Amino acid sequence: MSVIREENVTNPTPFKVTPMPADYEYWTNTEIKVRVPTAGWLVNNNNIISGPEPAVAVTGRIAVRNPDGYDDTGDNELIIQFAQFNSVFNLGSGNQSFPRKLIDRSGNGGYYLVFDPSFNDVHPQNIPDAKQDVIDAFCEWNAETAAKLEIVENCPTGSICFKVSGEVLPNLPNGTVVLAAGGSNPSGTSCTGETVIVLVSLKFNTSQDWITSSVQNPLPNENIIKNTAYHEVAHMLQLGHVYNEGSLMHPMYENDQIIDVDAIAGGTHVSNVSANTACANPLQQGLIASCMNPATEK
Ligand SMILES: [Zn+2]
Questions:
Q1: Which listed residue, of 12, 36, 98, 201, carries a Cα 20 to 30 Å from 148's Cα?
Q2: Residue at 106 is within a domain
Q3: For 94-120, how does the pLDDT look when each residue is reduced to its tens digit (9 = 90+)?
């Protein structure tokens, strides 16, 4: 989880540090508990700092702060459900963060996505197989979690459809290349007392070298569309990054990454809480028809 940070409320100028591994008191498939750290990485900086350095939290409240501004705080320690984006829309006890939930935005129990014409620029040498790689990744996630994120060829009349697109994505400020970006944006308005996902998106960086999963022995600079999609779909399912190297949700891409057990546990957790939410339009779990009957036309 990359967004756990601490703030020192006694410091008039808020600062944030990222906890060290030892500050995670436990870490299960569905829950993380973190304490106020005595050492940490300064945000946007790789320097490790430790108390009594004034920039270390040591005491005070912990904050979970997401890039979109939702946050949550707790005294001395904080329990976070999985490596999942959280919000404090439902204030609750104040030391428990709340998972965002998937809802039915397509009218078919989940979310529809269509390929934007710009996706053709991702791998113009073989557009049908490039699309099939993305479709296969979505279908595998659906089979694992029953959460309906479905790619359709044409957006059904009257439905809300989101896009799988290709565009030039800028590097991060530290120079890290961004291969792709999977997003899911929340809104607090659709279900009483809960934060729900109202928008999903998936973008591939057209300035990178892409290959399809059928290619044997890829070169180091070649990135497999399907394996990248595994990671990005997880972001759409509200999973964040983890420290564990080799995990699907580690931020650095590997061509051999798979939908691993931790990611499945997290995605299933999100799917289950979404389907069981007291909401007018909850996610409806189930297999996607187009995945059960693969298209013969490619
Ligand atoms: Zn990521």
A1: 98
A2: no
A3: 555 566 889 999 999 999 999 999 999
Q: How many domains does the chain have?
A: 2
**Would you give the distance in Å from CA 29 to the centre of its chain?**
15
C-alpha 182 – ligand 1 centre gap (Å): 7
Co-location of 158 and 72 in the same domain: no
Residue pair 191/198 in contact by the 8 Å Cβ criterion: no
| Residue 272 phi, psi (nearest 5) | -65, -45
Domain membership flag for residue 105: no
239 CA to centre of ligand 1 in angstroms: 9
Four-residue CA torsion sign, 207, 208, 212, 213: negative
Cβ neighbours of residue 26 under 8 Å, at least 6 residues apart? 32, 33
Residue partners of 127: CB distance under 8 A and separation at least 6 = 119, 120
User: 181 CA to middle of ligand 1, Å?
Assistant: 7
- Residue by residue, DSSP assigns 83-106 as TB-EE-SS-TTSSB-EE-B-B--S
Residues 6+ positions from 98 with CB-CB distance below 8 Å: 72, 81, 86, 87, 88, 89, 90, 92, 194, 195
Q: How many angstroms is it from 199 CA to the middle of ligand 1?
A: 17
CA 240 to ligand 1 centroid distance, Å: 7
Beta pairing class for 61-65 and 4-6? antiparallel
pLDDT digits over 8-60, tens only?
444 445 566 777 777 778 766 566 777 777 777 776 566 777 766 666 666 66
Q: What is the pTM of this model?
A: 0.74
